[in-house]
């Protein structure tokens, strides 16, 4: 849907007046079948009208420069975006590390889940058609080394990170546009927010070269990151004041040939 009838017009004004977050309003509109860009734009327009403060970009913790020495390895910076805060890295993982991570997970993949907005329980949905496997934080020497590297790169305490997740997308599999943070208005978010607080940033690491498709896309920012073995995309969506960045809406585009393997690191406000 790409237009608002009178009922939706009233609904938007009402929700903004009640103090609902932009993110929760956008998510409700996506659930109702609105196009992501349209939902985002409508909420931003109505919010300006209603005098709701826009997301304030504060300093990104990632170090400046073309190269960042991260724990045990020099990582290259390929691209940065300020709004939303996105950094693309190369040489985060070695080819051998990527191969090992894939080999270790291949045998124990399960269909990916999302968090039910109401109950907070994990559920399988059509919008997320990958399969995955999780590592416990620092479960062995390799995982710990990578965790330390990512903590240095993200400049965020290792203790605030969730365990890493490996995902595999086959041809046609995708993750439709979504936010990684827990929508504050959803009853199901409360239990997640109670331990470690909000998610503040994500690192998606590409473990293989994808024959075609499978980009990480930020539809409202017009950013597309091509998957490439050893590379990673970092994005930050919560500022120190606890606001959440609506421009961080992102998706894993459908794989059109080959397969796509990624590993994801989500980091929280506090120890997790
Ligand atoms: O597959 C991708 O490129 C993005 C994955 C993602 O957004 C997620 O796992 O939260
Ligand atoms: Fe995501």
From TrEMBL:
<dbReference type="Pfam" id="PF13640">
    <property type="entry name" value="2OG-FeII_Oxy_3"/>
</dbReference>
<dbReference type="GO" id="GO:0005506">
    <property type="term" value="F:iron ion binding"/>
</dbReference>
<keyword id="KW-0560">Oxidoreductase</keyword>
<dbReference type="InterPro" id="IPR044862">
    <property type="entry name" value="Pro_4_hyd_alph_FE2OG_OXY"/>
</dbReference>
<dbReference type="GO" id="GO:0004656">
    <property type="term" value="F:procollagen-proline 4-dioxygenase activity"/>
</dbReference>
<keyword id="KW-0223">Dioxygenase</keyword>
<feature type="domain" description="Fe2OG dioxygenase">
    <location>
        <begin position="160"/>
        <end position="269"/>
    </location>
</feature>
<keyword id="KW-0408">Iron</keyword>
<keyword id="KW-0479">Metal-binding</keyword>
<dbReference type="GO" id="GO:0031418">
    <property type="term" value="F:L-ascorbic acid binding"/>
</dbReference>
<protein>
    <submittedName>
        <fullName>Prolyl 4-hydroxylase</fullName>
        <ecNumber>1.14.11.2</ecNumber>
    </submittedName>
</protein>
<keyword id="KW-0847">Vitamin C</keyword>
<dbReference type="InterPro" id="IPR006620">
    <property type="entry name" value="Pro_4_hyd_alph"/>
</dbReference>
<dbReference type="InterPro" id="IPR045054">
    <property type="entry name" value="P4HA-like"/>
</dbReference>
<dbReference type="InterPro" id="IPR005123">
    <property type="entry name" value="Oxoglu/Fe-dep_dioxygenase_dom"/>
</dbReference>
């Amino acid at each position: 849907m790409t237009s608002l009838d009178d009922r939706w017009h009233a609904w938007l004004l009402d929700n903004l007046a009640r103090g609902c977050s932009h993110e929760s309003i956008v998510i409700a509109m996506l659930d109702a079948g609105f196009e992501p860009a349209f939902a985002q734009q409508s909420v931003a327009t109505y919010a300006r009208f209603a005098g709701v403060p826009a997301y304030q970009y504060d300093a990104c913790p990632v170090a400046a420069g073309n190269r960042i020495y991260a724990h045990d390895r020099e990582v290259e910076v390929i691209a940065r975006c300020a709004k939303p805060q996105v950094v693309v890295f190369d040489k985060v993982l070695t080819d051998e590390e990527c191969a090992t991570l894939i080999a270790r997970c291949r045998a124990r993949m399960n269909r990916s889940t999302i968090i039910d907005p109401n109950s907070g329980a994990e559920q399988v949905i059509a919008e997320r058609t990958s399969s995955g496997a999780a590592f416990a934080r620092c479960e062995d020497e390799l995982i710990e080394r990578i965790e330390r590297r990512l903590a240095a790169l993200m400049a965020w305490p290792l203790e605030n990170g969730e365990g890493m997740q490996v995902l595999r997308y086959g041809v046609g599999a995708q993750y439709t546009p979504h936010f990684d943070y827990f929508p504050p208005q959803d009853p199901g978010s409360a239990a997640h927010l109670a331990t470690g607080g909000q998610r503040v940033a994500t690192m998606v690491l590409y473990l293989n070269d994808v024959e075609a498709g499978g980009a990480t896309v930020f539809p409202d920012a017009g950013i597309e990151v091509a998957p490439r073995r050893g590379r990673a995309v970092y994005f930050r969506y919560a500022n120190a004041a606890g606001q959440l960045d609506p421009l961080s809406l992102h998706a894993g585009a459908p794989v059109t040939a080959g397969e796509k393997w990624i590993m994801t690191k989500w980091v929280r406000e506090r120890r997790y």
